[in-house]
Amino acid sequence: MSSPLRPSNSAANRGLGNLGRRKRSREPDDETSSVVPPSSPPPSSPPMLPFDDDDNERDEEAELLGDIDDIDEMAEDEDGIDLFGDNFEKDYRSTADDQYRGEYIDDDGDHEELDVATRRQLEARMNKRDRELERRRRMPAAFLQDDEDGDIDLTRQPRRRRHHYDEDRDDVEMGDDAMEELSLEELTDVKASNLTDWVLQPQVLRSIYREFKSFLTEYTDPAGASVYGNKIKTLGEVNSASLEVSYAHLLETKAALAYFLANEPTEVLKVFDQVALDVTLFHYPQYHDIHNEIHVRITDLPVSYTLRQLRQSHLNCLIRVSGVVTRRTGVFPQLKYVMFVCGKCNITLGPFQQEASAEVKISYCQNCQSKGPFSVHSEKTVYRNYQKLTLQESPGSVPAGRLPRQREVVLLADLIDSAKPGDEIEVTGIYRNSYDAQLNNKNGFPVFATIIEANHVVKSHDQLAGFHLTEEDEREIRALSRDPEIVDKIVRSIAPSIYGHLDVKTAIALSLFGGVSKEAQGKMSIRGDINVLLLGDPGTAKSQFLKYTEKTAHRAVFATGQGASAVGLTASVRRDPLTSEWTLEGGALVLADRGTCLIDEFDKMNDQDRTSIHEAMEQQTISISKAGIVTTLQARCAVVAAANPIGGRYNSSAPFSENVQLTEPILSRFDILCVVRDLVDPSEDERLANFVIESHHRANPARPLRDQDGNLINADGHPIDDDGYRIDKKTKQRLPLTDEELATRDAEKQRREDEKDGEIPQELLRKYIIYARERCHPKLYQIDQDKIARLFADMRRESLATGAYPITVRHLEAIMRIAESFCKMRLSEYCSAQDIDRAIAVTVDSFIGSQKVSCKKALSRAFAKYTLSRPKPQSKRRAGIPAPDPFKPRMQSSTRAR
């Protein structure tokens, strides 16, 4: 309040000096004093300092002197100043002090002109000095610290008067806001005990804001176009609330921001979101009517972890993990900014930001000082969407003999419903810890649960986990596809450690490549995956084929019929411990979506469990109606199953349906049936024994190796030549080879012959399969419809006569899928007549091989007109593997080679 001796309009009548010192007049109806309740101190009051009785006396004396000065000023204002008095001429007398001294004036000297950079640097230093002087002038003397800058003049502080704090408050805030920002190099010089304290400093946050804003507005591609300017433009066109920013781009231009983002993502992402919102509002000023927040989504994080690699060192850091979604909760509203209403005085308190670690609670009301009760103001409280996923390790990345691990993933804002059970996703987010009461009660000491707060979620369709194709890989694959015998090479490269079984290898190759799924009229989906059933005697490498497929397929789930149940293969319903609601958890078929599901001991499954997969094998969906949940899950996978015949061995005198405990509906869903027999043949058994021994010899770890130049060497490091001699390093003499060295040379020659024979390396074969499934989608063009129609009619007639197993329309569709798979092996866009002939040959061989022995010869002669046109392999085959005979079922013995 003003002094009672000072009139309210004194500021208006005061001189220019007082006007320059005052920022505004003091009216009795000031807005500040009108809005402050009388029970609380005004917000503009200066901070209270400790004082004693002497201070009180000095303050009273200073106030009294101030009032006397005000009275003198008031008297001068009322009487005015007489400019033409009796002694006004004295003001114009000349004095000696009116002359300027000429010291330190050098008008004749020649000074160099400053360049622009030096001038700006000096001006910045002078501006900094002026700001420091102004700040210290306004600061009370009690707050000043001893400084080495003794040349700063503090005597020019104005006379302290009451309530001057109001006038200078805005100036002090302007001085704080105008604090100097840090350069990008100064940001990396952390001047705090830890990185979190450094990032939370105001000047650091402002510097991060400035640098990221310049990054969004200035980063360009090699063509000179603005990368993120176009993304923001697209963001506004689709009304999105997410802006994807590449970590590689940020690391390339703003390495300091990339470092802060990876190690302190919580605070840095808040600044990034604000910058993205400001830049978006610059382009779309009314965008806040659609979204009041823009979220920056980080992509291309260079380091990827598996779920079992996460440790405490990754807490509160940005990580990238991948896995399969096994469970998903509903969408819940989560508090973001909470507003409370006091039950005593009905005043609204807040907003209070709700953190993920603890619940917001207030202890007393700031207005009435009561302790409640307090209720949440639902209308003014800000909510956001909340959803939780269970992420499990991908089946192909789990080490042998280990159980897959899982983590909880939290989805917020617009990431809701970005993945569903069965999807393989890649999550970039913050690895956090949260308090879990159940863990503490169970362990008896403080243990924290861990969750991943997702920042970016992307589905990894048809991609091998951690497996990416380079340009060199694509060139090599394209060159390999131009080989006219690429189909035969692929078949021989399937399970090379298993002897024979070209029919089984062909069926597995067709299943790995797969056909093309179609959407028929009326939105009915026709599957493109090829299902295979292996039925045969024990010890014929059926399980080995499944294990090989599990390692080679881009995504595979292995299960056994004895340990699998209906819910384990399809989906189960469980109660969520957090929300107590029923949620779905996908089974093996759901986890193998867009991949391959392998089921061993298929005949050991219960009939009820086996019936549950009928829908998944044909419609490739799983319908669930349990615990109030009615939904459909995707199971777009190929099924490769292995079973043993009734009684342990296959009875060739009985048809196929009598040798296996499988119903006709399940048999009709398999596109290819392979009967594997263990027959006694002395010549074939001898070749089999040689193949096994040779395989063990090649797998011997003590065999001679190669030197740096690729030449063969023995155990002592001596080179071995092809003429039967070894060269001694010291004497350079040619010595005859020992028996072991001769065996090494012969094995090397055999390996070279195998390579020339066209066997594709396994790593390249996996890349080839991935490339074909992703890039190749062949179409049926100019196929022989009459030939396929006659084949289908003949097969149905013979099936009815022999009673082996029924031929349905599914087998007709299987011919189309098999032809498309052969076309994918060639990486062609259209199916040719050669692909149709190969598909017909595979279908006929599968049909004849499942017949009883009394009908095989007659059926082979009847269907010879369809199989004679199959392509004949022209390359030299590996020793011990004879060419297939179209009139003889391919039933050779086999064994495990390694």
From TrEMBL:
Belongs to the MCM family. GO terms for biological process: double-strand break repair via break-induced replication; mitotic DNA replication initiation; premeiotic DNA replication. InterPro entries: MCM, MCM2, MCM_CS, MCM_dom, MCM_lid, MCM_N, MCM_OB, NA-bd_OB-fold. Its EC number is 3.6.4.12. Residues 1-10 have a biased composition (Polar residues). PROSITE patterns: MCM_1, MCM_2. Residues 51-81 have a biased composition (Acidic residues). The lineage of its organism: Eukaryota, Fungi, Dikarya, Ascomycota, Pezizomycotina. Residues 1-86, 736-758, 869-898 are annotated as: Disordered. Residues 38-49 have a biased composition (Pro residues). It catalyses: ATP + H2O = ADP + phosphate + H(+). It comes from Aspergillus brasiliensis. One of its GO terms (molecular function) is ATP binding. Its main location: nucleus. Keywords: ATP-binding, Cell cycle, DNA replication, DNA-binding, Helicase, Hydrolase, Metal-binding, Nucleotide-binding, Nucleus, Zinc, Zinc-finger. This is DNA replication licensing factor MCM2. One of its GO terms (cellular component) is DNA replication preinitiation complex. It is found in: Nucleus. Residues 742-758 have a biased composition (Basic and acidic residues). Residues 486-692 form the MCM C-terminal AAA(+) ATPase domain. Pfam families: MCM (PF00493), MCM2_N (PF12619), MCM_lid (PF17855), MCM_N (PF14551), MCM_OB (PF17207).
